[in-house]
Automatic annotation (TrEMBL):
Phospholipid/glycerol acyltransferase domain segment(s): 73-187
Segments traversing the membrane: 12-31
Alphabetized PANTHER family for the sequence: 1-ACYL-SN-GLYCEROL-3-PHOSPHATE ACYLTRANSFERASE
InterPro entries listed in its UniProt record: Plipid/glycerol_acylTrfase
Pathway: Lipid metabolism
GO terms (BP aspect): phosphatidic acid biosynthetic process
Name this protein carries in UniProt: 1-acyl-sn-glycerol-3-phosphate acyltransferase
């Protein structure tokens, strides 16, 4: 336990220092194109994922890469941990994240996040937030970026299932986009609200593409949920 605590503490210190440095770097990328900003700022993500492996022993494997389409898509992912929010932007093609706008107010971290042109919504606004997701999501997809959203909206402990919000399915069905469901078991090693990071192997599973053309948002949302939660049971069984 002492070793685990020390490794987690070292990781926290290194991540904090790295975040401060890259927040300043992110501000310097403002004059450049969205692609250059993305490649530069997500170096932070790559380094943090590497530090998690080297310092904390958190390794990962990705299955289903062959399912990724050649065109920008809407990624709908399980949310258990901070790990996937850091890793997915560099393990998958470039994409804009749908986030709660409060994240942009976090010192240092929010500065870097803002330079990635996320879709920052006020979740309390309901229909207005859905309209924003569609309008800005359409633009991001046209620019060649995917759009990533966590349907549950908040991190869920392993074994728990949150309410799947309609935002991602609403966007995909309104713009006839492809949808990529993603499951993983990161919460087993990097639990929510926990300082300790546990060594082990995270499995990230990319599901078959779902064509949203002609689908109702509710039906699409249920199909995504069904695949993710079925896959989660498989991942937990083999954890």
């Amino acid at each position: 336990m002492i070793v685990l605590l020390l490794r987690s503490a070292l990781f926290a210190v290194l991540q904090t220092l790295l975040t401060i440095v890259f927040s300043l770097v992110a501000l310097l990328t403002f004059p450049f194109s969205a692609r250059i900003r993305y490649r530069t700022i997500t170096l932070w993500n790559r380094i943090v994922v590497w530090l998690a492996e080297v310092v904390c022993g958190i390794r990962y494997r990705v299955i289903g890469l062959e399912n990724l389409p050649n065109t920008p898509a809407v990624v709908m992912a399980k949310h258990q941990s901070a790990w996937e929010t850091i890793a997915l932007p560099v393990l998958l093609p470039p994409m804009a994240l749908v986030i709660k706008r409060e994240l942009l107010w976090v010192p240092f971290f929010g500065w870097g996040m803002a330079m990635l042109s996320p879709i920052a919504i006020n979740r309390a606004e309901g229909r207005a937030a859905l309209k924003q997701i569609v309008e800005q999501g359409r633009v991001r997809l046209a620019e060649g970026f995917g759009v990533m959203i966590f349907p549950e909206g908040t991190r869920m402990a392993p074994g728990e299932i949150g309410r799947y919000g309609i935002g991602g399915a609403w966007l995909a069905s309104h713009v006839n986009a492809l949808v990529v469901p993603v499951a993983h078991n990161a919460g087993e090693l990097w639990p929510k609200n926990s300082f300790l990071k546990h060594p082990g192997l995270i499995t990230l599973s990319i599901g078959p593409v779902i064509d949203a053309a002609g689908m109702k948002p509710d039906a699409l949302n249920e199909q995504v949920k069904a695949w993710i939660e079925t896959e989660m049971k498989q991942l937990q069984r083999h954890a």
